[in-house]
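User: New here, any thoughts?
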Amino acid sequence: MKKFIIKMLLITVGAFLAAFAIEGFLVPNQMIDGGIVGISMMVSYLTDINLGILLFVLNIPFVLLALKIYGKMFIFQTFYAVTVFSIFVGIVGGKIGIVTHDGLLVAVFGGMILGAGVGLVLKNNGCLDGTEILAITLTKKFPVSVGGIIMFLNAFIYTCAGFIYGWDKAMYSALTYIGASRVIDAVLQGLNEAKSIFVVSDKNYEIGANIMSQLDKSVTYIDAQGGYSHQEKKMLYCVVPRLELTKLKDIVNSIDPEAFIAIENVHEVEGKRVKKY
Protein backbone atom coordinates (compact mmCIF):
# COMPACT_ATOMS: atom_id res chain seq x y z
CA MET A 1 0.00 0.00 0.00
CA LYS A 2 2.86 2.37 0.83
CA LYS A 3 4.46 1.80 -2.58
CA PHE A 4 1.10 2.29 -4.30
CA ILE A 5 0.50 5.60 -2.49
CA ILE A 6 3.99 6.85 -3.39
CA LYS A 7 3.44 5.83 -7.00
CA MET A 8 0.13 7.71 -7.18
CA LEU A 9 1.73 10.80 -5.61
CA LEU A 10 4.50 10.74 -8.21
CA ILE A 11 1.94 10.37 -11.00
CA THR A 12 0.13 13.40 -9.56
CA VAL A 13 3.36 15.43 -9.50
CA GLY A 14 4.14 14.36 -13.07
CA ALA A 15 0.66 15.35 -14.26
CA PHE A 16 1.04 18.76 -12.60
CA LEU A 17 4.44 19.38 -14.22
CA ALA A 18 3.06 18.46 -17.64
CA ALA A 19 0.07 20.75 -17.11
CA PHE A 20 2.33 23.59 -15.98
CA ALA A 21 4.53 23.20 -19.08
CA ILE A 22 1.52 23.25 -21.39
CA GLU A 23 -0.30 26.19 -19.81
CA GLY A 24 2.73 28.21 -18.74
CA PHE A 25 4.86 27.75 -21.86
CA LEU A 26 3.16 26.17 -24.86
CA VAL A 27 -0.46 27.38 -25.01
CA PRO A 28 0.32 31.13 -24.52
CA ASN A 29 2.85 30.94 -27.34
CA GLN A 30 0.68 28.91 -29.75
CA MET A 31 2.96 25.89 -29.59
CA ILE A 32 1.89 22.28 -29.14
CA ASP A 33 3.03 18.88 -27.94
CA GLY A 34 2.76 15.75 -30.06
CA GLY A 35 0.13 13.01 -29.95
CA ILE A 36 -3.37 13.32 -28.53
CA VAL A 37 -2.26 16.26 -26.38
CA GLY A 38 -1.22 18.18 -29.49
CA ILE A 39 -4.50 17.37 -31.26
CA SER A 40 -6.43 18.54 -28.19
CA MET A 41 -4.48 21.80 -28.11
CA MET A 42 -5.23 22.54 -31.77
CA VAL A 43 -8.93 21.69 -31.42
CA SER A 44 -9.15 23.90 -28.32
CA TYR A 45 -7.47 26.77 -30.20
CA LEU A 46 -9.89 26.48 -33.14
CA THR A 47 -13.10 25.92 -31.15
CA ASP A 48 -12.48 27.58 -27.75
CA ILE A 49 -13.50 24.33 -26.04
CA ASN A 50 -11.80 23.96 -22.65
CA LEU A 51 -8.48 22.17 -23.15
CA GLY A 52 -8.84 20.13 -19.96
CA ILE A 53 -12.16 18.71 -21.17
CA LEU A 54 -10.70 17.86 -24.59
CA LEU A 55 -7.69 16.11 -23.06
CA PHE A 56 -9.98 13.91 -20.99
CA VAL A 57 -12.54 13.16 -23.71
CA LEU A 58 -10.02 12.40 -26.48
CA ASN A 59 -7.85 10.18 -24.27
CA ILE A 60 -10.60 8.03 -22.76
CA PRO A 61 -11.18 5.91 -25.92
CA PHE A 62 -7.50 4.97 -25.90
CA VAL A 63 -7.62 4.10 -22.21
CA LEU A 64 -10.50 1.74 -22.99
CA LEU A 65 -8.58 0.37 -25.95
CA ALA A 66 -5.71 -0.47 -23.60
CA LEU A 67 -7.95 -2.91 -21.74
CA LYS A 68 -7.12 -5.46 -24.43
CA ILE A 69 -3.37 -4.90 -24.13
CA TYR A 70 -2.43 -3.97 -20.57
CA GLY A 71 -3.41 -5.02 -17.07
CA LYS A 72 -6.08 -3.48 -14.87
CA MET A 73 -3.54 -1.63 -12.71
CA PHE A 74 -2.11 0.16 -15.75
CA ILE A 75 -5.62 1.10 -16.85
CA PHE A 76 -6.48 2.44 -13.41
CA GLN A 77 -3.28 4.45 -13.11
CA THR A 78 -3.57 5.78 -16.67
CA PHE A 79 -7.19 6.80 -16.08
CA TYR A 80 -6.13 8.54 -12.88
CA ALA A 81 -3.19 10.25 -14.63
CA VAL A 82 -5.36 11.50 -17.52
CA THR A 83 -8.06 12.71 -15.12
CA VAL A 84 -5.64 14.58 -12.84
CA PHE A 85 -3.78 15.96 -15.86
CA SER A 86 -7.02 17.29 -17.36
CA ILE A 87 -8.05 18.84 -14.04
CA PHE A 88 -4.67 20.49 -13.57
CA VAL A 89 -4.78 21.92 -17.10
CA GLY A 90 -8.22 23.35 -16.32
CA ILE A 91 -7.01 24.81 -13.02
CA VAL A 92 -3.62 26.06 -14.15
CA GLY A 93 -4.86 27.51 -17.43
CA GLY A 94 -4.91 31.29 -17.37
CA LYS A 95 -3.92 31.54 -13.69
CA ILE A 96 -0.13 31.31 -13.70
CA GLY A 97 0.60 33.85 -16.40
CA ILE A 98 3.03 33.53 -19.29
CA VAL A 99 6.51 32.44 -18.26
CA THR A 100 8.22 33.69 -21.43
CA HIS A 101 7.48 34.65 -25.02
CA ASP A 102 10.91 33.64 -26.32
CA GLY A 103 10.35 30.71 -28.70
CA LEU A 104 13.68 29.04 -27.98
CA LEU A 105 13.23 29.30 -24.20
CA VAL A 106 9.74 27.88 -24.52
CA ALA A 107 11.01 24.96 -26.60
CA VAL A 108 13.92 24.20 -24.26
CA PHE A 109 12.48 24.78 -20.79
CA GLY A 110 8.90 23.98 -21.67
CA GLY A 111 10.11 20.75 -23.26
CA MET A 112 12.24 19.88 -20.23
CA ILE A 113 9.41 20.40 -17.75
CA LEU A 114 6.95 18.58 -19.97
CA GLY A 115 9.38 15.67 -20.41
CA ALA A 116 10.00 15.48 -16.65
CA GLY A 117 6.26 15.31 -16.00
CA VAL A 118 5.50 12.72 -18.67
CA GLY A 119 8.56 10.71 -17.63
CA LEU A 120 7.42 10.60 -13.99
CA VAL A 121 4.02 9.29 -15.04
CA LEU A 122 5.50 6.66 -17.36
CA LYS A 123 8.06 5.56 -14.76
CA ASN A 124 5.20 4.86 -12.36
CA ASN A 125 3.19 2.76 -14.82
CA GLY A 126 0.81 5.42 -16.08
CA CYS A 127 0.27 7.30 -19.34
CA LEU A 128 -0.88 10.81 -20.28
CA ASP A 129 -1.29 10.32 -24.03
CA GLY A 130 -3.08 7.57 -25.94
CA THR A 131 -0.87 7.77 -29.05
CA GLU A 132 1.38 4.90 -28.00
CA ILE A 133 -1.61 2.71 -27.12
CA LEU A 134 -3.02 3.37 -30.59
CA ALA A 135 0.35 2.61 -32.19
CA ILE A 136 0.68 -0.72 -30.37
CA THR A 137 -2.83 -1.68 -31.49
CA LEU A 138 -2.08 -0.81 -35.12
CA THR A 139 1.15 -2.83 -35.14
CA LYS A 140 -0.94 -5.93 -34.46
CA LYS A 141 -2.79 -5.34 -37.74
CA PHE A 142 -0.13 -3.79 -39.97
CA PRO A 143 3.56 -4.66 -40.53
CA VAL A 144 4.92 -1.39 -39.09
CA SER A 145 6.76 -0.52 -35.90
CA VAL A 146 5.39 1.44 -32.93
CA GLY A 147 8.05 4.10 -33.44
CA GLY A 148 7.18 4.42 -37.13
CA ILE A 149 3.49 4.95 -36.40
CA ILE A 150 4.18 7.55 -33.71
CA MET A 151 6.60 9.37 -36.03
CA PHE A 152 4.01 9.40 -38.83
CA LEU A 153 1.24 10.65 -36.52
CA ASN A 154 3.41 13.41 -35.08
CA ALA A 155 4.60 14.47 -38.54
CA PHE A 156 0.95 14.83 -39.54
CA ILE A 157 0.13 16.74 -36.32
CA TYR A 158 3.00 19.21 -36.72
CA THR A 159 2.14 19.73 -40.37
CA CYS A 160 -1.39 20.66 -39.30
CA ALA A 161 0.11 22.96 -36.67
CA GLY A 162 2.04 24.71 -39.42
CA PHE A 163 -1.18 25.59 -41.25
CA ILE A 164 -2.95 26.64 -38.04
CA TYR A 165 -0.25 28.53 -36.12
CA GLY A 166 2.38 29.20 -38.77
CA TRP A 167 5.49 27.24 -39.68
CA ASP A 168 7.76 28.95 -37.15
CA LYS A 169 5.46 27.83 -34.33
CA ALA A 170 5.26 24.33 -35.80
CA MET A 171 9.06 24.02 -35.92
CA TYR A 172 9.39 25.30 -32.36
CA SER A 173 6.74 22.76 -31.35
CA ALA A 174 8.72 19.95 -32.96
CA LEU A 175 11.83 21.16 -31.11
CA THR A 176 9.85 21.09 -27.86
CA TYR A 177 8.79 17.52 -28.56
CA ILE A 178 12.39 16.45 -29.23
CA GLY A 179 13.57 18.06 -25.99
CA ALA A 180 10.74 16.49 -24.01
CA SER A 181 11.57 13.07 -25.47
CA ARG A 182 15.18 13.34 -24.34
CA VAL A 183 14.15 14.26 -20.80
CA ILE A 184 11.62 11.40 -20.73
CA ASP A 185 14.46 9.00 -21.61
CA ALA A 186 16.60 10.49 -18.83
CA VAL A 187 13.80 10.08 -16.28
CA LEU A 188 13.04 6.51 -17.34
CA GLN A 189 16.64 5.34 -17.68
CA GLY A 190 18.33 7.44 -15.01
CA LEU A 191 21.05 10.06 -15.17
CA ASN A 192 23.78 8.06 -13.46
CA GLU A 193 24.73 5.94 -16.41
CA ALA A 194 27.06 3.07 -15.56
CA LYS A 195 29.15 0.81 -17.78
CA SER A 196 29.00 -2.96 -18.10
CA ILE A 197 32.27 -4.65 -19.02
CA PHE A 198 33.03 -8.06 -20.49
CA VAL A 199 36.64 -9.22 -20.29
CA VAL A 200 38.04 -12.28 -22.05
CA SER A 201 41.49 -13.24 -20.77
CA ASP A 202 43.50 -16.23 -19.56
CA LYS A 203 44.09 -14.24 -16.36
CA ASN A 204 40.49 -13.37 -15.52
CA TYR A 205 40.68 -14.66 -11.94
CA GLU A 206 43.64 -12.38 -11.22
CA ILE A 207 41.90 -9.47 -12.97
CA GLY A 208 38.71 -10.10 -11.02
CA ALA A 209 40.54 -10.23 -7.69
CA ASN A 210 42.15 -6.85 -8.41
CA ILE A 211 38.84 -5.27 -9.46
CA MET A 212 37.22 -6.45 -6.24
CA SER A 213 40.11 -5.27 -4.05
CA GLN A 214 40.87 -1.94 -5.77
CA LEU A 215 37.41 -0.85 -6.93
CA ASP A 216 35.27 -2.72 -4.38
CA LYS A 217 33.03 -3.99 -7.18
CA SER A 218 31.63 -7.48 -7.52
CA VAL A 219 32.50 -9.55 -10.60
CA THR A 220 30.93 -12.59 -12.24
CA TYR A 221 32.72 -15.37 -14.15
CA ILE A 222 30.89 -16.82 -17.15
CA ASP A 223 31.78 -20.03 -18.98
CA ALA A 224 32.76 -19.35 -22.60
CA GLN A 225 34.46 -21.04 -25.53
CA GLY A 226 36.90 -19.53 -28.03
CA GLY A 227 35.49 -19.30 -31.53
CA TYR A 228 38.78 -20.17 -33.27
CA SER A 229 40.56 -22.25 -30.63
CA HIS A 230 37.44 -23.93 -29.23
CA GLN A 231 39.18 -23.79 -25.86
CA GLU A 232 37.14 -23.40 -22.70
CA LYS A 233 37.57 -19.94 -21.16
CA LYS A 234 36.22 -17.80 -18.36
CA MET A 235 34.65 -14.47 -19.29
CA LEU A 236 34.53 -11.77 -16.61
CA TYR A 237 31.54 -9.48 -16.23
CA CYS A 238 31.09 -6.46 -13.97
CA VAL A 239 29.38 -3.07 -13.78
CA VAL A 240 31.16 0.13 -12.74
CA PRO A 241 30.37 3.88 -12.75
CA ARG A 242 31.68 5.90 -15.68
CA LEU A 243 34.29 7.61 -13.50
CA GLU A 244 35.88 4.25 -12.61
CA LEU A 245 35.98 2.90 -16.16
CA THR A 246 39.50 4.17 -16.86
CA LYS A 247 40.79 2.66 -13.61
CA LEU A 248 39.23 -0.70 -14.51
CA LYS A 249 40.84 -0.70 -17.95
CA ASP A 250 44.19 0.13 -16.34
CA ILE A 251 43.79 -2.88 -14.05
CA VAL A 252 42.99 -5.19 -16.96
CA ASN A 253 45.79 -3.90 -19.19
CA SER A 254 48.38 -4.05 -16.40
CA ILE A 255 47.65 -7.75 -15.85
CA ASP A 256 46.97 -8.84 -19.44
CA PRO A 257 47.68 -6.33 -22.25
CA GLU A 258 46.22 -8.81 -24.74
CA ALA A 259 42.85 -9.07 -22.96
CA PHE A 260 39.67 -8.50 -24.97
CA ILE A 261 37.41 -5.83 -23.39
CA ALA A 262 33.84 -5.01 -24.45
CA ILE A 263 32.05 -2.02 -22.87
CA GLU A 264 28.33 -1.19 -22.97
CA ASN A 265 26.09 1.47 -21.44
CA VAL A 266 23.89 0.51 -18.49
CA HIS A 267 21.04 2.89 -17.67
CA GLU A 268 19.77 1.21 -14.52
CA VAL A 269 21.24 -1.26 -12.03
CA GLU A 270 19.23 -3.20 -9.46
CA GLY A 271 19.90 -6.19 -7.25
CA LYS A 272 20.76 -7.26 -3.72
CA ARG A 273 24.53 -6.78 -4.07
CA VAL A 274 24.36 -3.59 -6.13
CA LYS A 275 26.17 -0.60 -4.64
CA LYS A 276 25.30 3.00 -5.47
CA TYR A 277 26.18 3.79 -9.08
About this structure: The CA atoms of residues 206 and 255 lie 8 Å apart. The mean pLDDT is 84.
